[in-house]
Design brief:
Layout lengths: L10 H10 L1 H7 L17 E7 L5 H19 L3 E8 L4 H13 L4 E5 L7 H9 L3 E5 L10 E4 L2 H15 L4 E7 L5 H15 L4 E8 L4 H14 L5 E4 L2 H14 L6 E4 L2 H10 L3 E4 L5 H13 L7 E3 L10 H5 L17 H7 L4
Helix pairs in contact: 3-11, 4-5, 6-7, 8-9, 9-10
Keywords: Signal
Pfam family, one: Peripla_BP_4
Subcellular location: Cell envelope
């Protein structure tokens, strides 16, 4: 999981958007109708709340940066008055209570990164009944009784990573799989997305796999242990950026030559990839999903139709463009994520608006 400044569009992301034909998707989707939940006398400047499940991870801190920057821009336009941020510290029940407090305060919009796919359904539905714009991003809830959901496709994330590995190894080789925490929707979905590709390529042998939190230290420890019992490997199918950084550090500690590896836009991983001359592939869960969530809520409050679901394309990082990401590394925390550029033109494109 996933600060931002309004910046120019990246070529790779624009290409991904074109490939997905978002305008066609929005026009054909039955969910593309008058924005859900919006009712009552709600006029700008709006009061917005962000109900966050936890704020400690760097990905979340960067995401908060995109939200506060977006709100600052909207304040200058006279569209938003206040931003209220809560931190449930990983407890879904606490997050429910905090969302209820936002409802009781009659906020105009609530954006949610959910701590549970099911536990928040009732309180989110209640917010919708009260005419509050509710936009859910990153970690999604089951209920569709809200204004919009925004996310990348985690299954596609895993599929693309696995397909790159298969292609890189020519359809034959021994690999280790590194997963995020078991039971977390993002890590589970990435792993599920990879499996059909592995099933279709019997020449790829999965020696072993592991689940660790999205953190370099436990990932390094796990890979160090795995290398003792599996020294002869051809690739690492890593489904998280900090996991990939930990794996490369373990290779270095063991004096093992690096092998092709997948990952995401975690700064340390990208730097090690370049430094070690690794053959790599990565994508990302853009931190600016938070800013897009605020923008979407405001658009809905302003009376515009927004899609009930916005599928954000997955940018690809490879040898052809890794340099452009590392050129901007100084603008991101050492333990952070170098995410793709964004601006309101991108947001309008994603919402299929002109």
């Amino acid at each position: 999981m996933r600060s931002g400044l309004s910046q120019t569009l990246s070529g790779g992301l624009l290409a991904g958007i074109g490939a997905l034909s978002i305008l066609a998707f929005a026009a054909s989707s039955p969910a593309f109708a008058a924005s859900n939940c919006i009712k009552g006398d709600r006029k700008p400047p709006y009061k917005v709340g962000w109900a966050n499940i936890y704020s400690v991870p760097t990905w979340m801190k960067q995401t908060e940066g995109t939200i506060t920057k977006e709100v600052a821009d909207l304040k200058k336009q006279g569209v938003v008055k206040d931003l209220i941020i809560t931190d449930a510290q990983g407890n879904a029940n606490t997050q429910i209570q905090q969302i209820q407090s936002m409802i009781d305060s009659n906020l105009d919009a609530i954006v949610v990164d959910a701590g549970s796919s099911t536990a928040l359904d009732r309180v989110i539905s209640d917010a919708c009944d009260k005419g509050i714009a509710v936009v859910n991003f990153d970690s999604l809830v089951d209920t569709d009784k809200l204004t919009a959901k925004l996310n990348t496709d985690s299954n596609e994330w895993g599929r693309q990573a696995a397909q790159w590995m298969v292609d890189r190894l020519g359809g034959k080789g021994k690999i280790i799989i590194m997963n995020g925490p078991a039971g977390v929707s993002v890590s589970d979905d990435r792993r599920k997305g990879a499996q059909p590709v592995l099933d279709a390529n019997k020449g790829i042998q999965v020696l072993t796999e592991t689940n660790t939190e999205y953190n370099v230290a436990p990932a390094q420890e796990a890979m160090t242990s795995l290398l003792f019992s599996n020294p002869d490997i051809d690739g690492v199918l890593s489904l998280g950026g900090a996991l990939s950084a930990g794996a490369l550090l373990a290779f270095d500690r063991q004096g093992h030559d690096p092998v092709p590896i997948t990952g995401e836009n975690y700064r340390q991983f990208l730097e090690l990839w370049k430094k070690e001359g690794v053959k790599g592939w990565a994508t990302m869960q853009p931190n600016w999903l938070g800013a897009l969530a605020v923008y979407t809520a405001v658009q809905a409050l302003n009376g515009k139709d927004v899609p009930a679901y916005v599928k954000v394309p997955l940018p690809v990082i490879d040898d052809s463009n890794i340099g452009s990401y590392l050129d901007r590394s100084k603008d991101f925390p050492a333990d952070g994520y170098i995410y793709s550029d964004f601006d309101t033109a991108l947001f309008d494109k994603l919402l299929a608006q002109k």
